[in-house]
Amino acid sequence: MNLSHIVSKMDGLYEFDREPVSRKKLQGGGKFAGLFAGEHVAATEFVIGAFFVLHGVTFHDLVLGLLFGNMLAVFSWTFICAPIAFRTRLTLYWYLRKIAGPGLNFIYNIANALLYCVLAGAMIAVSATAVGLIVNVPIPSPSDILPPNPGWILITLIIGFLFTSIAVLGFEKLSRFAQICSPWIFIVFIAGAVGVLSRLGVHSNLDNLLFIARTKIWNGIAVSGQEKFGLWHIMFFAWFCNLAMHIGLSDMALFRYAKHWIYGFYSAFGMYLGHFIAWICSGVMVAAIGRDMHPGMMAFEALGLAGALGVFLAGWTTANPTLYRAGLALQAVTPNWPRWKVTLTAGMTTTILSCFPIFFMKLLDYVAIYGLILMPIGAIVFAEFWIFPLLNLEQYQAEKNKKILNWKALIAWIITLVICFFMPIHLFFRWLPGYFIALFLYTGLQFVRRE
Amino acid sequence: MKKVFFGACALICLVVCAVLPVLVFLDKIEAKAFKDYFLIATAGWFIFAVVWTLLFSGKSKNILP
Asked: Which of A188, A300, A324, B2 is the most exposed place for a label (fewest CB within 10 A)?
C-alpha cells in the first residue's frame, strides 16, 4: 500500500464534507446548544467530578476553578475555533490538508484514532462498574494498572463486545437513542446528588448546605495515594478538558455550520451543565459512598437500579460516537475494508484497552495527555490562518505546491511535544506554554525557510 | 395529536424523575419508595420518548456531525 493510495482512500472517506458549507445549510443556535449539552453530560462526568473530591479540592477552589476554567473553555471555542470555522466553512481535516498536506493528515488521523480508542475504553470501564455491581464483581482500585480479577476482564470484554456489535449494526439508530438518553442522564446526575444530600447530613431547610459541602464533600483532604489539587489544577482541567476540540480545532466540523462565529458561546450549555453541574453532582455522590471511586455504586446508592442503568447508558451512548470517530479515522489505513470491519477492529482494540483500569483510574491525566498531543495542530492552523497574513507569509503551501507533507508543521508538532514532555511543571499546565511554543516554532520555521 | 400525547407523557415522566429526589430530601417519601418510583418514571420516559421519536422521525433533519 503506497502513500498516494492511502491519501486517495482518506480523501474518499471525507469526500462528503470536502466543499465549504453552503449558506442554506447553516444551522440555528438551538442546534448548537442541544449538541453541546448532550455531548458534555457523559459517562466520564461520573469519574471526573468524583476524582476532584478524591484529590482533596476545597469547595471554594472547586467553584471558582470550574467557573473560570469553563469560561476560558467557552472563550476558546468562541474566539479561536468558531472564527476559523466560520470563515473557512471547512472541517479541520480539509483545512489541515491545505496547510500541512495529506501526509500530516494521515499521522494526525492515526494519533486521533488511538486516542479515541483509549477514551472509549474508559467509557466501557465506567459502564462495567455498574454491571460489576449487579453481578457482584469487585472493581479496580485507583492504584490498579492491570486488570484486578478475571471477573473484571470478563465484564469489560462482554460490554465491549456488546457496544462494538451494536455500533457495527447501526450507529445511526443508537445516535437517536443517545439523544433520548441525554436529558434523562442529566437528571440522573441531579437526582443522584439531591437524593443523597440528607444522607450527608444536609438539613431540609438547607441551612447547613455550605458547611456540609466544605467539611464532608470538598473538605480539602486528598485520599491516600491521590495528589492534592488546588484552584489552578481545577481551572486548567476545566479549560483543557476538551482541548482537542476547541484549541485543537476539531470542532471546526461543528462550527462550519454556524451562522455567526459568536455561536461559540453556545458551548457554555455543555460546559456549565456538564462540566459544572454534573461534576459537582458526581462529587456529592462519591462523598455519600465514603469517597470510593466506583461510579456504579455512586449512582446505585443514590437512585437504585435506575442509577446503575444511568451509568451503563452514559457509558454506552458516549462510547458509541467515540468508536465511530475512531473507526472513521482508522478507515484511512485499511484499504478496501468495509465500514463494519473497521468499526469492529476499533471496537476490539477499545475492548482490550478497557480491561486495563489505568485508563479509567488515571482519566484526568489521560485527558491532559490527549489534549496535549493534538494541541500543536491547533497552533499550526491558528498561525497559518491569522499570523501568516500579518507577516506576509505565503499560506497553504502544501496545497499550492502539491506537497504530501509539510515538514515544518511536522517538526513543530514533534519538537513541541518533546519540550512539553520535559517541562518541569505539572502535566495539567504544560499545554499552555506548549501552545505558544508550537505557534512561534511553526511561524519561525516558515519565516526562516520561506520560499 | 399522538405526537403531542406521547411527547407530553415523556415530559411528565422526566419531570417526575426530577421532582422525586426533592421529595425524598424533604422527607416526604421513603428512600426505598423513591428508588422504585424513579425506576418507574425512568421506564415511562424511555417508552414515551422512543414512541415520540418514532412518530417524529422523518420530519427532522440533522446535518450536523
From this structure: B2
